[in-house]
Amino acid sequence: MSEQIEQALSRKYEAGFVSDIESETFAAGLDEEVIRKISAMKNEPEWLLEWRLKAFESWQKMEEPEWAHLHYPKIDYQAISYYSAPKSMKDKPKSLDEVDPELLRTYEKLGIPLYEQQMLAGVAVDAVFDSVSVVTTFREKLEEAGVIFCPISEAVHRFPELVKKYLGTVVPRSDNYFAALNSAVFTDGSFVYIPKGVRSPMELSTYFRINEQNTGQFERTLIVADEGSYVSYLEGCTAPQRDENQLHAAVVELVALDNAKIKYSTVQNWYPGDENGKGGIYNFVTKRGICHTNAHISWTQVETGSAITWKYPSCILKGDNSVGEFYSVALARGKQQADTGTKMIHLGKNTKSTIISKGISAGDANNAYRGLVQMGPNSDGARNFTQCDSLLIGDQCGAHTFPYIESRNPSAIVEHEATTSKVSDEQLFLCQQRGLDAEKAVSMIVNGFCKEVFKELPMEFAVEAGKLLEISLEGSVG
Amino acid sequence: MLKIHNLHAKVEDKTILKGLSLEIKPGEVHAIMGPNGAGKSTLGYVLSGRDGYEVIDGQVELKGKDLLELETEERAREGLFLAFQYPVEIPGVSNMEFMKESVNAMREARGEEPLSAAEFLKKAKEACKQVHLPLDFLKRGVNEGFSGGEKKRNEIMQMILLEPSLCILDESDSGLDIDALQVVADGVNSQRSPERSFIVVTHYQRLLDYIKPDFVHILADGKIVKSGDASLALEVEKEGYAWLGGKAQEADA
Amino acid sequence: MSQWLEQVVERAEQANLTGPRLQALTALKQQRWPTRKTEAWRYTSVTPIEQLSLSSVQTIRANATDIDGLDSLDLVFIDGVLQQSLAALTLPAGLTIQPLSALSDEEQTAASLFGQIKPAHHIFGLVNDVLAEQGLIIDVAPGADITQPIRIINLSSQGQESHVRMVVRLGEQSRLCVIEQGEGQDPSLHTAFAEYQIGPHAHLEHYRLALHTAKAVQVGGNHFRLLENAELNSTLVAFGSDLSRLDVDIEHAGEHAHAKFNAIYLLGSGETFDLHSCIEHAVPNGTTEENARGIVGDRAKAVFNGRIHIHRHAQKTLAELNNRNLLLSRRGQINTKPELEIYADDVKCAHGATIAEIEEKALYYLLSRGISRSQALIMLNFGFIQELINQIPNGAIATWLQEKLKDKFSQMEVK
Asked: Of A189, B103, C24, C179, which is the most buried if we count CB atoms within 10 A?
């Protein structure tokens, strides 16, 4: 039966096509000059260039972290191009009609039409292609409500006060190796500001696409939810099927001011490499949010792509009564390696956090949950509950759990549980006996295993995530 | 023995008891019946002083003392005993150790010498036998792994050992089959005396066939809405709580 | 490299080591002195070792704590020196005890017992390799059932540094009970490592009592290697000191072996205790249950790192690990890290860790029976570790421990 699983596991990556778009791409290599050039391309103010240069200075002194349960050849940072943009973007198209039709076709092929009339009502999209934002939909409608949703490169010019006030406050520019690199070379990303008391009238989403060869993608997202506001933000990512590894080192910062709530969902489907582990995205991402009094940040992620995933969306629960949540499904198959989890830092009183992590390993993959729950000396009455479940499909994969739990407050309560299980022959037999084929059966069992997380996703995303998992598992059954 | 006057109490922000008054004389057995959600269990918790159950108005006197001024353990030492509906399990603390501490705390409060280990063991064994619990239950963790019926019998055993003056039995019949009910009732009846009073809280009349009450009160929406003798319970058995009106029925649903 | 370690290396070099011990010295020289960045020492600082100034202190001879009713065969080391003549002992049939020096280099290598303490976990295994001049080799013949427990007492006198090593081998279908008891005066430094091989169908009952407190620094470890159908039942009890650290490795080298490991730690004042356990399932069909429970009061710090590693092909493994902690004080801290590393799919593995306070319901239940709040808290806290004491097979040790822990607990600050 497990042979059937193996077969079913042979992958099919649907977003692997390459778009034929003329691009302007920097020569590979990284030095101060490249950073100055990126900054100049974006016509950035002096303070931001300074900020980038300081980040670069720190990065040069830092060492690439080795603590994760990941094995990959050393990355040559000089072999990567740090900027690539479709040529047609040079003169900034004013409207969608001026956008290169090939670009629009690319997003359509990915199932993300950028024409507003064709879109799912209620979802505004910022499409980022290689290093630049191509288009942001529904902007007027959002701006009526006072919601700012635009490329961060644009926000730097239009809302310099806001950007300056919050950029780097949650993830400092020298926070870690990859965050420092991102701070030095980030090219675009989304900026969101929800004013006081406003509930964003629609879901906001950004679709990231890496197209160009030998380029890295370094986007930076900053979301500020002012007092009493609410926003749900979705993020999707894909890349073409290429033989060489590509680096993606993003930073996401969330600021939830008093009584605000941010729901951040990701479906990450970067190209994972082929069955021999050739190619695929190296995904090194720093995501962190800060919660002020009564604020609430919820991270939901479905990670199916990337050759390497290094990602720990975290919450700093600074304000009293604030809430942090992390719901994660990470699927690793073939030669994929994932080391992902979260940090919940409880500083305020009565802060609460919930961590539900579902790791699925198949083929030769290794999937690790790594988490930190920290109860600070003043976190009276704080609570954490963590559930980490691993599902193994096949006997060549690995599932690992590395939770760090630290408490300094006697009234704080921490509960952590972890289990492992497999898709058993009995389960499969039962399903098959009831007329389901093995593939469908595994997909059903896996979906059931992930249900707790899927229910946290916005509706459209939940469907997408379920499908994605099904595709990823195709052929993975016995 | 016990005088409750106009008792109002809340849990979190919800007011559960809304002006309950009741007087119990030594030796009397009072049954309190009522639909679910009427506040029956709350009464036991408020009288015993559970954290989170806040008295907002009214007075309670036990043997002439202001009960509400006392801490939970002081109330227990004044002779108030609550037999829990759902006794908590405490792994690692043996039943024996628990009861010995408890009995001696009571004795100390009464100015008596603590019992020696041998004296206590003798008493505990007798009490165990009386409620048909095997002796090894004394060695096991408090209520740890006990069945529902065993937990209830363990409560009655504690009552026998502690010799309280006022016993509140909170749905001591729930979840029991007829044999277990008989054991619980026998245990309670053996403790009836002219000095000892009982409040028997129950949803069904069934228990009152075994423990004959002197008075029956109907509690609905935080107040006693009707009082009578044992025949009132039979009336309730026949007619249910529907006559109490929509509100109580809702609570019962 | 720290000054302390330099001195260790210097002493070892003068000792003209050979065989496995010389290899250990070579390995030791390549080791980095642990800092907070060393994962295995993330929460525990080794500065108490560096700062220990032993030579200036007047030596006062230590005395061992007695365990009532324990009819054991006692072997006493004071400051690393065995106080008895092994030749003069009358031993039950099937039991042999030899000094460490009885094994030649070749025999040591052949026994492949030394060197099981992994330097990756802890450099002090290597320190003990090169410095332990004395120790014991205990062998139980196949089929022998040694009913009298053997107790190894390691005493460190004030101002002394000592290192003792032990190797215990249980032949097929044999039974043995070993108690390792360590105590140290203030200040002292002690390292004690023991390697056990439990033969097919053999049964080892084991206790490690680390009673070091205050400035009695101790680092040590146990390595258990279980062959087919071997059984281990081990209980560890620790108080804390300026630095108290134990590494327990359990290796399933034969199928159908069963390991049960319970640990209790009770820490007060400024004490630190750090327990690292590593369960290696290298073969199929093994079972492990580990339960560690600790109470931390005052300014104390508990560190727990419990790893379960299921190797590829170790199918049908059942492994469970549970770590529960009670933190009693605002100034105390608990750091726990249960880890799973699993490379086989048909296994049942779970771990859990909690840090909590006493349940309100349980406290209320005790209060409603007239027990005072302070007494109720003591009972509940103690009940928490009582559950593990109840599982101790040796009645005399259980009774003694109960009193010992109660005594220690009564001195702790309970909120």
From this structure: A189
- Surface-to-core class of residue C56, CB atoms within 10 Å of its CB (0-12 exposed, 13-18 middle, 19+ buried): exposed
A433: which residues sit within 8 A by CB, 6+ positions away? none
Domain carrying residue B12: 2-252
Is C337–A404 a contact, with Cβ atoms under 8 angstroms apart?
A: yes
Q: Residue C335: closest CA among chain A residues belongs to which residue? A: A406
> Which member of C361, C370, C386 has the closest CB to residue B93?
C386
Residue A143 has pLDDT above 50, yes or no: yes
- In whole angstroms, what separates CA B10 from the centre of its chain? 20
Query: What's the gap in Å between the CA of A427 and the closest CA on chain C?
Result: 13
- DSSP string covering A299-353: EEEEE---SEEEE--EEEE-STT-EEEEEEEEEE-TT-EEEEEEEEEE-STT-EE
CATH number of the domain within which B57 lies: 3.40.50.300
**Alpha-carbon separation of residue B104 from B108, C193, C295, C372 (angstroms):** 6, 47, 27, 11
Residue ranges for chain B with pLDDT beneath 70: 245-253
- Tell me how long chain A is: 478
Residues in B closer than 8 angstroms to C383, CB to CB, are 90-93, 141
User: CA geometry: angle at A459 spanning A454 and A465, to 5°?
Assistant: 45
Kindly give, in sequence order, each residue whose CB lies less than 8 Å from that of residue B245, ignoring residues fewer than 6 positions away: none
pLDDT in tens, B230-249: 888 888 878 777 777 655 44
Q: Could you give the ipTM of this predicted complex?
A: 0.90
Q: What chain A residue is nearest to C300 in terms of C-alpha separation?
A: A408
Burial class (CB in 10 A: 0-12, 13-18, 19+), C326: buried
How many independent structural domains does chain B possess? Answer: 1
- Convert the pLDDT of each residue in A308-365 to its tens digit: 999 999 999 999 999 999 999 998 888 899 999 999 999 999 999 999 999 999 888 9
Angstrom distance (rounded) from CA C389 to CA A164: 59
Q: What is the CA radius of gyration of chain C?
A: 21
Which of C312, C328, C335 is the closest to A405 by Cβ?
Answer: C335
Q: Is the pLDDT of residue A93 over 60?
A: no
User: How would you class B101 by CB atoms within 10 Å of its CB: exposed for 0-12, middle for 13-18, buried for 19 or more?
Assistant: buried
Q: Residue C101 gets which letter from DSSP?
A: G
How many residues make up chain C in this entry? 415
pLDDT band at A207 (very low <50, low <70, confident <90, very high): confident
Please give the single-letter amino acid code of residue C177. Answer: C
Domains in chain C: boundaries: 3-360
Look up residue A281 and give its two tokens: 């995205």
What average pLDDT does this structure show over C152-181? 94
pLDDT in tens, C179-205: 999 999 889 999 999 999 999 999 999
Residues of A with CB under 8 A from a CB of C: 67, 69, 375, 377, 390, 392-422
Q: How confident is the model at residue B249, as a pLDDT?
A: 45
